[in-house]
Amino acid sequence: MKILKIGGSLITEKREGVFEVAKEKEMERIARILKGVRDVIIVHGVGSFGHPHVKKYGISDAMSITKVHNACLRLNVMFCSYLEKNNVSVFPIHPIEFFPSPDLKMVEKLLKFGFVPVFHGDVIMEGEKFRVISGDEIVRMLSEHFKPEKVGFASDSEIIYKGEVVEVVNEKNYREILKDLRGAVGKDDVTGGMLNKYQEALKIARNCEVYIFSLENLEKFMKDEIVPTKIEKGNYKL
């Protein structure tokens, strides 16, 4: 079983100041690559359907939370419709309803029935407050329970270090790359950009191989080919 994260930058315009602009051609392209897929959990980012709303409205009261959550839902419905058209038996799961007491047994049953659970970035209730939960965090939480064969993050780029694509991350080089990475630049991103993705990926890689790659390598990943950036399984300390 695989867990696949589709970055919000792949399915939405995520430039600074952009508000709810979907990349429908890219959604269609991704859906064709995933045509008929099973035995996978998909998590997608929300890009300009999430981050700008949080910055504009916050998550301090019921109406602001409503605006943020409903924007995330609009993107999820759109993305799932393309997957459905390509024979993917999607089962959308909305984090605001699923967390903080997730029924992971239900997700196991859905996979056995042949469904493809589809999560997304969202807001969730935690104690007496609401907070943003990123798709990357959801991937890490699901990975801890399901122990997938591998995890893939389809993003707008591989990991870049000193101007070059990193082919392999391992226990020898991960610290230097971590020092070099910073949050997303020039994008409305309230969840930490590549730095957060890398940190979550290192946590996941304690249990399985993780890949961070551009859209061009999605099909290869789904065919179990090795693509950059591969993060080897290892004892990573953050």
TrEMBL record:
Pfam families membership: AA_kinase
EC numbers, comma separated: 2.7.4.26
Reactions catalysed according to its record: isopentenyl phosphate + ATP = isopentenyl diphosphate + ADP
Keywords: ATP-binding, Isoprene biosynthesis, Kinase, Nucleotide-binding, Transferase
GO cellular component, one term: cytosol
Domain Aspartate/glutamate/uridylate kinase intervals: 2-214
InterPro entries: AceGlu_kinase-like_sf, Asp/Glu/Uridylate_kinase, Fosfomycin_R_FomA-type
Keyword hit for Metal-binding: no
GO biological process: terpenoid biosynthetic process
UniProt family annotation: Belongs to the isopentenyl phosphate kinase family.
Protein name as it appears in the record: Isopentenyl phosphate kinase
Species for this entry: Ferroglobus placidus (strain DSM 10642 / AEDII12DO)
